[in-house]
Amino acid sequence: MTHGDNMPRSLTILSFAAALALGQTAVAQQDGDAAASDEQPAAEAPAETQETAPEAETPAPEAAGDDAATDSGFSQGREVAEAEDPTYIKEKFGDWSLRCFRAQEGEDPCQLYQLLREKQGNPVAEFSIFDIKDQGPIIAGGTIMVPLFTLLTEELKISVDGAAAKSYPYRVCTETGCIAQIGLTAEDISAFKRGAKATLTLVPAQAPDQKVRIDVSLSGFTKGYDSVSLFTE
């Protein structure tokens, strides 16, 4: 992220203060000009002619309203409708949720989702699973997001109930975390259905000699997986 994308808060505050002071100076200047004009002596009225011209009708001043506030340089603001969340939780299955995406047409696609937390309850990772087809032995896909500053050369390891782990490469890192996209076979899904707990193992970049283990509860996985929508490419 560039500095332009993340403007320092102090700079923002100073810019706002300067703009506010400028607006107050302009208002004070206008008041001073008006006062000066009131102090000037009035010009002598011209001599009346024998036939005085009819006085022109002067329109009544408009009541001060929204336009007056706008002309002063200060906006009164307007109501902004909040954007609808593109995702929603349709149903819960144990520790898993059926998270769906609002589609413009047709049925909303859904995936099995779990927000993973560490012992203190803080969220540390996300795990989502969806069905796929025509991918050979792979019958389901998974997206796992782990914290930034993960050592990418040490791939993500996944094991179920202490069995031998499988290793998966990371695909990309974003502003919110690093992502591994995994393919799951029928054997993998069966292990998830039979198991009680899966474990994610990753290595932090700042401490490459250490390993971080994140537990994934498999409570409700079987019923939840049967409700997952079919994703096709």
From TrEMBL:
Biased composition (Low complexity): 27-63
Keywords: Signal
Top-rank taxon: Bacteria
Region Disordered, annotated ranges: 27-81
InterPro entries: IalB_sf, Invasion_prot_B
Signal peptide extent: 1-28
Protein name: Invasion associated locus B family protein
